[in-house]
Amino acid sequence: MKLGMGLVGPGFIAAHHLDAVRRLGNVEVVGIAGSSLESATKRARELNAGRGYADYHELLADPAVHVVHNTTPNHLHREVSLAALRAGKHVISDKPLAATMEEARELYEAARAANLAHVVTFNYRGYPLVQQARAMIGKGKIGPAVFVHGCYLQDWLTDERAYTWRLDPKLGGASSALGDIGSHWCDLAEHVTGARITAVLADLHTVVPVREVPATSAKAFTGKATKGTQKRKITSEDLATVLLRFDNGARGCVTVGQVLPGHKNDLRLEVNGREASLAWRQEQPNELWIGHHAKPNKVLTRDPALLDPAARAYAHLPAGHPEAWADAFRNVIADAYAWIQGGAKPKAKPIALPTFADGYRNSLVVDAMLKSHAAGGLWQPV
Amino acid sequence: MKLGMGLVGPGFIAAHHLDAVRRLGNVEVVGIAGSSLESATKRARELNAGRGYADYHELLADPAVHVVHNTTPNHLHREVSLAALRAGKHVISDKPLAATMEEARELYEAARAANLAHVVTFNYRGYPLVQQARAMIGKGKIGPAVFVHGCYLQDWLTDERAYTWRLDPKLGGASSALGDIGSHWCDLAEHVTGARITAVLADLHTVVPVREVPATSAKAFTGKATKGTQKRKITSEDLATVLLRFDNGARGCVTVGQVLPGHKNDLRLEVNGREASLAWRQEQPNELWIGHHAKPNKVLTRDPALLDPAARAYAHLPAGHPEAWADAFRNVIADAYAWIQGGAKPKAKPIALPTFADGYRNSLVVDAMLKSHAAGGLWQPV
Amino acid sequence: MKLGMGLVGPGFIAAHHLDAVRRLGNVEVVGIAGSSLESATKRARELNAGRGYADYHELLADPAVHVVHNTTPNHLHREVSLAALRAGKHVISDKPLAATMEEARELYEAARAANLAHVVTFNYRGYPLVQQARAMIGKGKIGPAVFVHGCYLQDWLTDERAYTWRLDPKLGGASSALGDIGSHWCDLAEHVTGARITAVLADLHTVVPVREVPATSAKAFTGKATKGTQKRKITSEDLATVLLRFDNGARGCVTVGQVLPGHKNDLRLEVNGREASLAWRQEQPNELWIGHHAKPNKVLTRDPALLDPAARAYAHLPAGHPEAWADAFRNVIADAYAWIQGGAKPKAKPIALPTFADGYRNSLVVDAMLKSHAAGGLWQPV
Amino acid sequence: MKLGMGLVGPGFIAAHHLDAVRRLGNVEVVGIAGSSLESATKRARELNAGRGYADYHELLADPAVHVVHNTTPNHLHREVSLAALRAGKHVISDKPLAATMEEARELYEAARAANLAHVVTFNYRGYPLVQQARAMIGKGKIGPAVFVHGCYLQDWLTDERAYTWRLDPKLGGASSALGDIGSHWCDLAEHVTGARITAVLADLHTVVPVREVPATSAKAFTGKATKGTQKRKITSEDLATVLLRFDNGARGCVTVGQVLPGHKNDLRLEVNGREASLAWRQEQPNELWIGHHAKPNKVLTRDPALLDPAARAYAHLPAGHPEAWADAFRNVIADAYAWIQGGAKPKAKPIALPTFADGYRNSLVVDAMLKSHAAGGLWQPV
C-alpha cells in the first residue's frame, strides 16, 4: 500500500519535503494545508502537490493522509504536531521541535505515548560521509575523542535590511542563530561522536541590533528592501560562540553566526581523537578529511566501495558523482518512511533517523546555552 | 494531464532516470521493459516503477506511455529509439545516440521528421554553473575565447580485472573512453562556448591491453573478480588526448582516461578568454573559478542571487546548500518534459536541452577523433 | 658600515635567524655563544657562523657585535636580553619576551630606557598577505570588524612519548600551548585588526596528562622515543579555547592545540567586518580569502601588482612564485636591521616590526588567559 | 676556503641568485658585471653585491671569482658561458643553456671537456616534494608510469601592451612560451619520472599577434604602458599544447601558455602509474597528491618525518612551516656549490642538480617541438 502524505505549512522548505517524498516512489502526495483554502489550493497546483485543504484540521481529518509533514513557522510547530499525533498521524517535523524546552518535552512524550513515528529533520545526518564519520568513530578508528569543534556560519543576515520571523522571539523562539542553525551543529556533533554535551558556556552577541523591517514580514533567505519599512530593535543573537564539554571527557567549541560575509551555509565539524582526526564541511560534502600525526593525511571521497557498510546505504551514486543537500534530505525522509512502512516500532528505528527524542534533547542543549549567556558566561550543565 | 513515461533498459542508470522523472511531480511512471516479462516485472517492483512489459514492443504499444526513456546498452540505442519514434513516442535517449555516425544521422533525421521531442542525456549541461559559464561567455564577459581545455578522468578501469561491455566494440562502439566520457566533455565544451569543434588531432592508447573477463559480462562500475574469468585482448582506448580547433579560432585540448588512479569522475572544463578565464569541475560543481589578469580571481558560488537569469532557473537551493549530480540530471529531464508538455515544437526547445541534433553532432566529433588516430595522428576536420 | 650580529642559544631556530640575517647582505655574522666554548665553536663551524664564544658574557663584551639575537630557551630570555641591553647591544629576542608578565615589563622598560632597538620575533607578521590584511582593515575595506577568530593547531605532541622543555613550567613558563603558539595568534590578531584584546575567557585542558620523558630533554619537534625514559606528569595545557573581546567591540575566539592529529602548523586568522571578511592560513600563505555577502568571494594571490603599498614591500617575487615561512622571517629581520641602521629611533620603527612593547603586551594577554582558567572560566580583563 | 662568486647580467633574476648564494654562508659575493662599469657598480651597491666590473671580461679575469653566475638575456648565454669556462670558472647558467640546439651542444661539450662544474638553473627540481615524487617513482611506488601530463600557465602577457625581449626571436630564441617555461616543465617531467621524451607533436599558437612595444624594451613581468609605443608583429608562440611519448612507453601531454588570465605561475605535473598517481603544483608546493584506485587518496605534506631520505635533505623546516620558491632555488644552488667544494667531479654530481647535459637535452626537446609544429603537427622524434 502506498502511504499518503500531507503537508502543513507550504513555505520555502515545503518544496524540498515534497521533492524528497516523491523520490521514494511509493508515497502518495495527498495535499497541503496553509492559511486558507484558496492559498493552499494555489500552492498545491504550483507544487503538483495534490489538493489544498482549508486548514490543517481538515487535512488531519483526511484518512488518506498517514504522514504529516509539519513545515510551519516555529511558533506553530507544537500545535500542529500535537494535533497530528492526536489524529493518529505519523509526524515529520522541521526543527526546532517546538518553541521552548517545555513544549519540546511535551511533544516528545506525546509522540512516545502515541506509538507513531516521530521525526525531526536534522537533515545533515543524511549525508553519507556524516554516517561514515559516525561509523569510524564508533568503531574506534580515531581513538578516544578529545576535541569536537566547528562552526555554522552564514551571511544572509549581514545586510541590516534583511529580516526574518526567526529574529522575532514570539515567532522564532528566544534564540535566533543558535536555535536556527546552531541546533543543527549540536545534533550533528552528538550524533557523529556518540557522546553527549554535558555543559556549555555561551557568549552571544547581536551584531546588528536594529534592522529595517518590511511592513509584511520577509521570507527567509531574501534580503530585499521593501517599501514602507520600519526600524526594529533586535534582541536575538546573530553571532555566538559556545564552549562545550562532552560526557566522554572531550572538550569542544562551536561558532554560529549569520552575519559573516562570504559564508553561505558553512557548517563544519571536526573531531580530533588520540589516533586521528576527522573533518567534514557541508559545502564540500563528498570529502572527509582524515588527519594523522605520523603518516600522510587522507581525503576520503564518498566512494561506496570505500565506505563503512553503515554509511554505504546512504550513497546512491558511484564515486566522483557528487551527492548533495537534496540527496541527504531524501535519505532522512527515506529512513522515516521505511520506519513507518515497517510499523514505526521504536526498536526498528533506523539509527541515523532523528526523532522527537533528539528534538527534545536538542532543545535542552540550546536552552542551556541561553542560560549560560544570561548568567554572564558561566558553565551551565545540560 | 499527466504524461506517462516508460523506460526500456533497466540497468544502473535507469534508477536515476526514474528518480529525475519522479521529482517533476507531474509525470506518471507507467512501466519498464527489459529482456523478459519476468525480469522487467521484478525490476519494476524493485524500483516502484509501474508494470513490467514482455519486451519494448509491448511497451511502445501501450497508449499510456507518451515518453520513452531509452537506457539500453549502446548497441541497442538505434533500434529502440527508431521504433519509439515510429510508435509516435517522444524519446529521451542515453548517449551516445547510436553506435556509429551513420546511425546517429539516421536517428536525428527520423526524429526531426517525426515532430516529436528527441533528447540525448548530456546531463552535465544541467548544472547551474555550467549554464552560468555559458551565459557569461555568450554575453562577452570573458572576451573572445582563445583556449578551451580540460579533462575527463576516471579510475574504475585501472584494475585489469575490471571489465565492461563498453570495451567490446560490438556492444560499446569502436571507441571506449572517448565515446563513453569524452563525448560528454565535447558536448559540454561546445555548449558552454557556443563554438564548434572544426578539427581534431587524437592520440589514443590502450593502457591495459589484456583484461580478465568474467563469463558473464560485468556491469559498469564494478571491478570485482568473478569465478571463471578468461583473458581478453582489448582494442578500445582507455586513454586519449586530443588537440582541438574551434570555429571561433580558439584552440583546445582534452585528455580522457579511465585508468588513472585517484580520479573518480573528474571532468574539468576551462575556457580562457582575452579578458578572463572560467574553470569548472564536476566534482566540485557549486564553484566557478573566474580568473583575471590584473585583479583578484573570484570563486563564484552557485548563489541564485548572483547567477545570470539564464542559469538561475537551474538552481533550486540557496547558496551554500550544495546541488549535485542528481539535481543536474533532473534539470535536463525537467527541460525535456517542459518541452513535451508545451507540444515539443522545435522553436520552443529549451536552449540548454540536448537533442538528437547534438547527439549526431557529437558522433561526428568522436568519429573524427578515431579517424585522426587511425591516420597516425593527423588533423582531421569534423 | 656592516653591522655585526651575535647569537646566543644555538638551537633549532638559530639556523633560521642566521639564514635571515645572511639574506640581508649587509650584516656580518660575528659569532655565537652557547653552553661552552667547545660546543659553540663546533656549532659555529656547522652553521658557518663566525667564531664561538665561551659564554654569552664574552659575546656581549665583543665590540664587533652590535646586535644580539637571543634564541635561548624561554627561561633564559630575561637574563640574556637584559645583559645585552646593559652592554649597549640592540636585541632581537625570540618570543615569549620572558617567563612571566613581570619580567616582560622589566625588559620592556629596560629596552625603552636604553634607546636601543628591541625586537620580538612574532614572525608571522612578516607575511605579505598579513600586512595586506592589516592595510585593508586599516583603510576600512571590510567595514567595522565584528568577529575575529581562528586557531593555531599542531600535532607534534600527539604522541605521549613526545616531550619538550616547553611542557616544564620551570623552563617553558606556566603556559605551554598558549605561550608557545597561542601567543603568536594573539599578536597577529591584534596587529592585523589594529584592535586590542580587552577581556578573555579561557578553557584549558591537558589532553595528555602523563608523558614518557627521556633522561635528557628532547629538542622541540622530535617525537622519538629514547632509551631510559620515565613517566612525567604534565600540568601545562596542550589544548585551549579562548573567548575574546576587543576594544573596538568585536568578539573573538581562538583554539590552540598541539595534540590534534593532521594539523602541522595550522594557524588561521579570520576577521569578519560588516562589509566583508578576510581569512588567511599560514600553511597556504600566498592566498587571502575575501568573503562578500552580495557578490562573489575573491582569492587575492600574493601578487605585488595587486597589493596595498604597505604590503608590497614585503613581497619579493612575482605572483605565482610562492613565498613562505623563511621569507616572512627574513622580512621581520630586515625591518629590524633597517631600523637599527637608521639609528633605532622609536619614531622610525617600521610599523610591522614587533618590539618588546608587543612582547610585554602579549604576556599580559596570555597571563589573563591563565587567570581566567584558574578562576574556573570567568571573563578576565587584560 | 670561501668560494668567490661573480655574476654577469644583473636583471630581475640576479637578486635571487645572490639571495641563494648568501644563504649558503660560505660563499663570498665578489662582484657583478653588466653593460658598463657605472651601471654595474650602481647595481652592486643596490644589491650589496661586492664590486662592479666594466664588463664580463674583467670579471672573468679576476682570480677571486671561482664561480660565474650567467644571468644575461638568452642570446648572450653562449658567449658568456663559453668565456667563463675558458677562463677556468665554474658556471651556473640560467636556462635555456643557449639560443639554439647547436649552441647548447657546443656549451655542453665545452663544459664536459673543461672539468668544471656546469649547472643550469632548472630550479623547480629543488622543491622537496619534487624530489619526493622522483624518489617514489624510482622505487616503484606508483607502478609503471602510463601518463605524464600537466601545464605551465601564466597570464603576464595577456595584455597586448605587455612585452618582453623573450618575444623577439633574435634575443629570446625561436620559441617564446615553450623555451621560457615549457622547458622547465619538460625538464621536470623527465627528472621526476626518470624517463625520456622520445617524440613530440606540437600545436603552437600566437594568441596576441600584435603587441604595443615601448621604445626601450620592457623588463620581464611588467606590463606597464610607456610613452612612445609602437606596434610590433609577434611570431613566437604564447600558447602551445604538445603530445608526448616517453621511452618507458608512457604517453603525455603538456599545455604551456602565458596569456591565460588568472594563472600566475601555474606549473602542474601529474604522473599516473598503474598502481597510483602523483600530482604536484608549484603554487602549492608543500603538498603532493597521491591518487589511489581502491583506497582513499592522500595528501602528503612536506613533512621531513614522512619524506624519502633522498628528499628529506631538501626540506629545512618542520611540517606546516611552508617552504617555497626561494627555498627551492637555494637548494639547487646549494647542490651546485657542494659539488664545486668537492672538486666538481662528474661522478660526485648531486643527482638532483641540473647540468649543461640537461640544458642540452632540454634544447633537443624544445627544438623537436618547433620542428613538429613547423611540419604542421606531425610526430617528431627527439
Helices and strands in order, then pairings?
Four copies of one chain form a homotetramer.
Chain A: E1 3-8, H1 14-24, E2 27-33, H2 37-46, E3 51-53, H3 56-61, E4 67-70, H4 77-86, E5 90-93, H5 101-114, E6 118-120, H6 128-138, E7 145-153, H7 169-172, H8 177-193, E8 197-205, E9 210-214, E10 229-233, E11 239-246, E12 251-257, E13 266-273, E14 277-281, E15 287-291, E16 297-301, H9 309-312, H10 325-341, H11 356-374, E17 380-381
Parallel strand pairs in A: 1-2, 1-4, 2-3, 4-5, 5-6, 7-12
Antiparallel strand pairs in A: 7-13, 8-11, 8-17, 9-10, 11-12, 13-14, 14-15, 15-16
What sort of overall outline of chain A do the alpha carbons produce when their principal axes are compared? globular
Main sheet record of chain A: 9 strands, mixed
**Uncertain runs of chain A:** none
Ends of chain A: how far apart? 43 Å
Roughly what fraction of the amino acids of chain A lie in strands? 15-25%
Quaternary state of this entry equals homotetramer
Taking all Cα atoms into account, the compactness measure Rg of chain A is 21 Å
Question: Structural class, from secondary structure content of chain A?
Answer: alpha/beta
Strand order of the largest sheet of chain A: 16-15-14-13-7-12-11-8-17
Task: Give helix % range of chain A.
Answer: 25-40%
Largest interface by Cβ-Cβ < 8 Å: A-C, 42 and 42 residues
